[in-house]
Amino acid sequence: MRGPGALGLPRGAPADYGRGVAQFRLQGSKVLAVDMAGDAVKAKNGAMVAYDGRMTFKKKTGGGEGLRGLVTRRLTGEQMAVMEVTGKGTCYFADRASEINLVELRGEKLYVEASNLLCTDAALRTGTTFTGLRGAAQGNGLFTTTVEGRGQAAITSDGPAVVLRVTREYPLQVDPGAYVAHTGDLKQHFQSGVNLGTFLGEGSGEAFQIRFEGEGLVYVQPSERNTLGGDL
Amino acid sequence: MPFTVINSRMVEARIGPGERLYSQRGAMLAYRGEVSFTPNIQGGQGGIGSMLGRRIAGEATPLMTVEGSGTVMFGHGGHHIHVVDLTGETLYVEADRLLAFDGSLRQGTMFMGSQGGVMGMVRGQFTGQGLFTTTLQGHGSTAVMAHGGVIELPITPQRTVHVDPQAYVAHRGDVQNKLSTALGWREMVGRGSGEGFQLELSGEGTVYVQASEEKL
């Protein structure tokens, strides 16, 4: 499954769109190939599997730039070990044989777990936001990573992810353990179906959901992480 | 007798009278026809000398000989299987990644430490490959295991390929193999990018890379 626009250039793009910036393409479904011509991409630490040409790898710290980013990272624990890859040639990335999804961002914001973010264009800004109770229920902590700007990002999922569209008329409920990422103008809140049965050990295993309302896309993986409410 | 890919984790081999196949012991999933499986104490071809060589080199994986007539399906541990057809060139692969291979291929053990001098020795330690590797040469088919899918990257004299040692599966052709380091002060102070060591492959051939950094 791919995000919108991942198959080609976005409609109405200028002729020189994408020139001179890193080109992301999938080699199979589990390897990301990035063609670079002297520019840079940010990738998860240690995710490179092979490259040709000349590349240099430099460790960066994710979760925002500057002093503010540093403080946020310390406070939130949402620190992602990122490396900056610069060079000329093709670099191949993969992460524990998980499936890779390409997301094309055109100014919108992508919310994704740091552990699911494989690689982003260097032009994209990464930051950290508070997610509230949802984060804890996902088994991910209270903070999540945001990616913003124009360019491509690659996110990983356990099994091929499906992209579900949310519109004003059709809100979406997702199991916190299967949620991977979302983009667009979405409001999320946490809902629980806990009743007396849950406490008596007769729960359906679906005690908690995240409800998305608004307009946007949600990436869902066909697998569930271990979550706080997963057994209820 | 080429291997037929059934799905990404299973291959099928057709075997006829007089033909022989070697496979990792216990890797048979199902078979049709009259097929016999004999444990191969020597761990492959050659005589006692070859066996001793493999034992010393740590490249002795329990193998079995498959003979008879019929079809045999192989798979192991749910790992992805990649079929490599050889036409005269040499395949270099770790013994424990080798699932099955044609009996007509010549199996050998190579001392990898000799490539690249001291760095060659260091490489073996770092990559967990040890100092020796198994070689297969001739005309025939082999099935190699990997975690996650496998991609093939061509190597040409103009195009040197660098591979993460943990993601390296096998290579073939006339390829020079050395460990290159990109160690700087950052690694020393624990701020490394996690890509401090790479295998540099140059020459003419193909390298097989898995989509994961996990060992089998």
Structure at a glance:
The complex is a heterodimer of chains A (232) and B (216). Chain A is mainly beta and 232 residues long.
Folded structure, characterized:
Chain A starts with 22 loop residues before the first strand and ends in a 12-residue tail after the last strand. The model of chain A is unreliable at 1-10 and 13-19 (pLDDT under 50). By secondary structure, chain A is mostly beta strands. Chain A is built from three helices and twelve strands. Chain A is elongated, with a radius of gyration of 18 Å. Chain A has one domain (23-220): 4-Layer Sandwich (Double-stranded beta-helix), CATH 3.60.160.10. Chain B is mainly beta. Chain B is built from three helices and 13 strands; from the N terminus they run E-E-E-E-H-E-E-E-E-H-E-E-E-E-H-E. In chain B, 38% of the residues are buried. The longest helix of chain B is centred in the middle third of the chain and has 11 residues, at 117-127. In chain B, strands 1, 2, 3, 4, 5, 6, 7, 8, 9, 10, 11, 12 and 13 form a 13-stranded antiparallel β-sheet that branches. Chain B has a single domain (3-210), classed as Mitochondrial biogenesis AIM24 (Double-stranded beta-helix). Chains A and B meet through strand 3 and strand 4 of A and strand 11 and strand 13 of B.
SSE blueprint and pairings:
The complex is a heterodimer of chains A (232) and B (216).
Chain A: E1 23-27, E2 31-44, E3 48-61, H1 66-76, E4 81-93, E5 99-112, E6 117-121, E7 125-130, H2 133-138, E8 143-157, E9 162-166, E10 172-174, E11 179-192, H3 196-199, E12 208-220
Chain B: E1 3-7, E2 10-15, E3 20-24, E4 28-40, H1 48-57, E5 63-74, E6 80-93, E7 98-102, E8 106-111, H2 117-127, E9 132-146, E10 150-155, E11 161-163, E12 168-181, H3 185-188, E13 197-210
Antiparallel strand pairs in B: 1-2, 2-5, 3-5, 3-7, 4-5, 6-9, 6-12, 7-9, 8-9, 10-13, 11-13, 12-13
